[in-house]
Amino acid sequence: xxxxxxxxxxxxxxxxGEVIERPASVVKELVxxxxxxxxxxxxxxxxxxxxxxxxVRDDGRGIEAAELPLALSRHATSKIASLEDLESVxxxxxxxxxxxxxxxxxxxxxxSRTAQAPHAWELGAEGGERAAVRPAAQPPGTTVEVxxxxxxVPARRxxxxxxxxxxxxxxxxxxxxxxxxxxxxxxxxxGERVLLDAPVPAAAEEQGAARVRAVVGPGFLEQALPFxxxxxxxxxxxxxxxxxxxxxxxxxQFLFVNGRSVRDRLLMNAVRLGYRDVLFHGRHxxxxxxxxxxxxxxxxxxxxxxxxxxxxxxRQVHDFVFRAVAAALAETRPGGAEPRAxxxxxxxxxxxxxDSAAQVVGGGAHAASGGAHAAxxxxxxxxxxxxVAHPPVQASPSAAAPAGxxxxxxxxxxxxxxxxxxxxxPVAQIRGIYILSQTADGLVxxxxxxxxxxxxxxxxxxxxxxxxxxxxQLIDPIVVSLRPHELALxxxxxxxxxxxxxxxxxxxxxSLALRRVPALxxxxxxxxxxxxxxxxxAEESGTPHLQDATDRFLATLACRTSVHAHxxxxxxxxxxxxxxxxxxDRANQxxxxxxxxxxxxxxxxxxxxxxxx
Length: 613
Known about the structure:
The chain is α+β, with helices and mostly antiparallel strands and 613 residues long. The chain has three domains: 8-198, Heat Shock Protein 90 (2-Layer Sandwich), CATH 3.30.565.10; 204-349, Ribosomal Protein S5, domain 2, CATH 3.30.230; 402-599, Ribosomal Protein S8, Chain: A, domain 1, CATH 3.30.1370. It has 18 helices and 25 strands. Strands 1, 2, 3, 4, 5, 6, 7, 8 and 9 form a nine-stranded mixed beta sheet that branches. It has a six-stranded antiparallel beta sheet with strand order 17-18-25-21-20-19. Strands 10-11-14-12-13 form a five-stranded mixed beta sheet. The chain is elongated. The N and C termini lie far apart (89 Å).
């Protein structure tokens, strides 16, 4: 076949194959056009999963009658005019391909009216063939009807899934679009069913929280931490689901870049790393995260679907988001400024003392450049709720007490005179596993191993970052017997072991000599701990839930050196542990993501015993 120019109809259908993958793609393009047109209310109606009908109605600026034919022409757009515009585009659409692509594979009808026009104008198209523009009845704004999608492309029609599946894709898409613009009302209907109704509240400062509540559900806000972080011209904020509210599937993860909903692996990985040592393995965090940065540093033209973006400095953006998330989650400690998470009738994970839902603050200057964690300073375009606690003071107890539990100056009182903190006053040890504590509000149960493990882990990380973990020289080396592959792994990770306070040498193919050990280890326990640590690291090598090798090493060391079941603690030791928890980052979870404490209020206890009935 000789080289020839393809006919326009075939060109449009080829372009439609890139832009219009399924009915949800049509909804996305049409709703984004409505948002770009300044719409404050958008209604989406679908039938038969979008194959029979997709109707998108808005109250935007509308299209002039003379421009309607151009709107259905390829590469015709009002959003960019030069390469400079493309390099700093802020509109959701800009390629000029959506409407002609949709028109080439459906029966299309566009009705539009500007605010100044006496009436609306209508333009129809079927399979790419346009009719004449004619007058019509329509309030100011635009309505686009798409019927019989893929009627002229049977091969594409075969790949369309069931009506329920396609409707599910549309519903999830509209939810993301509604979250991206809390200042616009959204309504989605399928036949007589209303699948989403998200109005704009009268008070502008409530838009962000109200939209999250309408789309993700009220339960999310009750178990989420609002946050905000800025460095230079890069800003991020939103809500992070508490580690105790993790999910079996990644179905509540929403990312937005400059108001655009994206599915970006770089950002998803950054958030996942921020959760890395507070999330139980196999679980997924829930979050609504907005990222705002200079549009010239983002390429939104990576793919026709515009769901993928590229960053000019991907590593810096990744580290910025990772550090912002990690710093916010560091506040998940007793007394932090996050809401409490319900876990069942009468019981709640004690993930903080506050019950406040997310609040939104409007106006005001943004946080100072480079600020670590600003609370609700509010340049977020969607006026999100951003109430963030101050950074915690790291606990630094003495290593003199067994396994690192120390009586600090604040808690060096008799059992009868112990001062009550957020976690209350310890009264007993139960089954050699739990600490029972009493507060003014109720009872608290603490898993002593999980709690102490986190305290030691955070202390080891801080010491490691400064100059290495304090250690003690042994007069006589301790010899530890290991399996050959375990010894090989220890020697391979020698630098991590040394910064963690060990000095070691191989004595043979299966023997290790310890000449220095961390100060928190007694000489008698060092051999058992090292043997256990080497065995655990060898088993976890390659598939740990903690991604960083050094953190994994320190977490395992903390786990093996913390108090274990049936270790009897005195009341002062229990109190010292509780006070350390209150000053330790991420102390609501152990290193593996398990909750470290729960609270039962007096009211819940009264309810259990039917008191006051």
